[in-house]
Please model this.
Amino acid sequence: MRRRARLLQTIRQYFLVREVLEVETPLLSHCGGTDPQLDFFTTHHNAPPLQQTLYLQTSPEFAMKRLLAAGSGSIYQITKAFRNGESGRFHNPEFTLLEWYRVGFNLSQLMDDIADLIAAIFADSQPPLCATQRMSYQAVFAQYTGLDALVFDAPAYRNYAIHNGLPEAVALCAADHNLWLDFLFSHQVQPHLGLNALCMVYGYPACQSSLARINADNPLVTDRVEIFINGIELGNGYFELTDADEQNRRFDQELALRVQLNRPITVKDTRLVAALQAGLPTCSGMAIGLDRLLMLLSASTSIDGVLNFPLHRA
Model:
């Protein structure tokens, strides 16, 4: 509890001196995300005339972007988020999330911001973080698999999986490039990242980033970054997409994929699309799971070790 309190104090002080405004947004919303890999908690609002299904939010992202479009300036939030079907060593269905947006920042500036925040958080940790690493997704994927992450060669991916003791990937991933990347990255790449260091992987393949801008110099990648320490994924950030039509198209693609995969039906956020149409300022945003961060700060081996009330005791 004391470590958590110190962590929250450090985060708030970091953003206070940089004049980033702390905000709150609803946990319940009329819509959910469209990510095909996520399931949602729902409830029903019974008071007429607004009887409807409501969604517990997997992230405050959409509501925070509506604030940005309304002229809030740079903002951050420490909040609860909820994801159904996620439980295990690194997952609790209810978790604490830090999310922030910096108006006028590109991806490189966001990565500088991330490095400064993590340095402040780990300033007194033992052992201290020894370095900050920046690696492109394509380069780090090739380093540990020998495969090109940006050009999908199905036979090469299948052969790699079979020869590296991962035959289950062939049936699981089939001809889906995105699934192959997720599977191989999590099994073969991620465990090597950020050994006693902050590792920032940027330039994710375009098929994996529905909320990020396409890179101006390479249409095969997006301006997305994920961060890792000791092989643990901690957060995900973007140079944010501001094109309303493109965002609406990506939402529709993900909704169609959810149907194809027989995932629970959800409702796209038309209010976010309207906010983008009104004008989202150029900005970059980042979300970090604070419970996982506490695992590292306290040398805990499971997320249950840093929660007062994990699911089985809630």
Observations:
- DSSP finds ten helices and eleven strands in the chain.
- The mean pLDDT is 94.
- The chain has two domains: 2-131+196-313, 138-190.
